[in-house]
Write a structure and sequence with these properties.
By secondary structure, the protein is of the alpha+beta class. The protein contains three helices and eight strands; from the N terminus they run H-E-E-E-E-E-H-E-E-H-E. It is globular, with a radius of gyration of 21 Å.
């Protein structure tokens, strides 16, 4: 037993040393998701560098900031991804915490409902409208949509709590 203990300790410390040299994660830490509405681009930023870029579709009224429920605009501002789920209608989806305090204050002042349920999501799985049908269209009610393969990659890359900046 006394000769086994030093061997176990050496093996344990060797393993700890090896683990210390390995990268903390196979996926990079994500600083933010940047959506540029005019360019229809979603960029994933890590350590200040764009590591992924995707073409997106927006709300049916893509110009301007979302003002109220039903206006079919995609919001502009600073948000976070606060939860996600598998959607029967839109494949994978990540919820953006719209409306923020600024959005709620503007809606209150205007006497309107700011709306909600803004998501980054995939395209519908629908036999009548195949995925290619949505390419290049602004078809959502205010969400940000990607092709399903891109959405699966984004889903794996971007954790809850990630900052989302949406610019005009």
């Amino acid at each position: 037993m006394t000769t086994l203990l030093p061997r176990l300790l050496r093996a344990f410390f060797s393993l700890m040393l090896l683990l210390a040299w390995l990268p903390a994660s196979a996926t990079p830490a994500i600083d933010k998701v940047l959506v540029l509405k005019q360019e229809r681009q979603l960029k994933v930023i890590s350590d200040g560098e764009v590591i992924r870029q995707y073409r997106v579709s927006l709300g049916k009224q893509p110009v301007g900031h979302k003002q109220q429920r039903g206006d079919q605009r995609t919001p502009e501002g600073i948000y976070t991804i606060d939860w996600r789920h598998h959607s029967e209608q839109f494949n994978l989806s990540m919820h953006i915490d719209y409306p923020n305090l600024k959005d709620r204050a503007a809606a209150y002042k205007a006497g309107v409902d700011p709306g909600g349920m803004i998501m980054i999501h995939g395209t519908p799985i629908d036999e009548d409208y195949p995925e290619w049908f949505f390419h290049g269209l602004d078809w959502t009610d205010g969400c940000i949509a990607l092709p399903n393969a891109d959405m699966r990659e984004l889903w794996d890359l971007v954790p809850n709590g990630t900052l989302v900046e949406i610019k005009p």
